[in-house]
Amino acid sequence: MSASTPTSRRGFMHALTGLAANAAAVPRQGLLLSTQLAGLAAMAQQSSHAADLNGGYKAVVCVFLNGGCDTHNWVVPIDTEGYAAYSKARPDLAWPLARLQAIATTGQAAGRTLAMPVELAPLARWYNAGKASVVLNCGTLERPVTKAEYLAGAGLPRKLFSHNDQASMWQSLSTEGARSGWGGRMGDLLMAANAHPVFTAVSATGNAVFLTGQNVTQFQVGANGLVATSGVNAPSIYGAARGSTALGRVLNPSTTDPLLAEYTRVLQRGLNANGLLQSALGGASVPPLPTTAVAASGGTATLDTIGLAQQLRVVLQMIAANQTLGMRRQVFMVSMGGFDTHANQMRDQPGHMAQVAGSIDYFLTSLQTLGLLNNVTLFTASDFGRTLVSNGDGSDHGWGSHHFVAGGAVRGGTTLGRFPNLATGSGDDIGSGRLLPGIGVSQLAASLGGWMGLSASEQLQVLPNLGNFGPGPGLF
After folding, report:
1. Could you give the CA distance from residue 308 to residue 324 in angstroms, rounded to a whole number?
2. CB 352 within 8 A of CB 338
3. Residue range 328-332: mean pLDDT, rounded
4. Considering the entire predicted model, what is its pTM?
5. For 128, which of 30, 147, 258, 422 is 20 to 30 Å away at the CA?
């Protein structure tokens, strides 16, 4: 097809650009249409072919911080105007300047300087080394929303500020009860590249909608490795020597009962996968977790006892075994709790930050040692941000928040998006210091999906609301 053909890719892009411009000329009524067309035009710049699986092995790792992480204290403005607004909004929750270490900031207004607290020094080092970035003021959005629209209740995600629903929105783009997540839907499109598709989507933190697809079934591992099926090949079950034999009959039933047949199929698949994985992990040598002391609530602990670090080590083992298992694309999830800080925030937050930073630092350092840092991208997520305004001992449920993305392929050493105005009552404050997100989860997810090899049309399959947005944060 020639470049002059009206239905060519170039012609399609030209038509979209013109329609977006015309729609923008119609105030308010054309705003959403303009945004949708602009988003489609931006995606049309990409190749429309099926998933690009070149570039060797790639994996995405979601670090979910359960409870709603107060990232107002993770990335802090220290320029005169910004710090004054920050400390005025939360006088009893603000870090003193002495605890904050400046990071290089690009893409922000002249004179704007950002910093991280000393507990996040390991993450700051990866940022300054160009291997991590910060996505600013990101949150659950179905489309871009203005403060006026928020106050009018227009175009808002359902059930804002609800833990279960907003955690589900982050993971699936739908409220609680969603049947698939965007990590799993990515896996649906990528699993054919893997010799063992059962290991496409892997959770080290229990069942999570993020990793559930239409065809992909998440494979679960424990913080200490494989989750074994009790009783198989055991000498006895509950003291009965014949128990193992009886269980063996269940695994090989001569029945037409569909429920029993499906139960048997799933159990047998798990046993087979566990055997395969156990063999592969036996040949995957990864650095041990260090016994470095880290802050913890009520004292100190060592990194090797921290659940998040243990989960990341299991993920590291599976990534190291990718060639043995014949894997080319994988999506992982780990998590840590304790971030619902309505109370005791300033007591508990330093330990939480130190544990997250230490765990991620171990993971990235180990990937670098194994020569796999360029093949893996890690990102943080949480139910929602929190209020800037203190409740007297902590902060309450908010909306937009800042998140880290790290890996060798990331366009690191930069902040992506606009740092919000932290003055209470500003255009970014929808009440009590709840920030109106400037970047939608769909945009962050699209950047990750594009790096994994999903085409523009495949990104729309995974992220149904993506066409409502303009270009994403440009992670790579």
Report:
1. 25
2. yes
3. 98
4. 0.86
5. 422
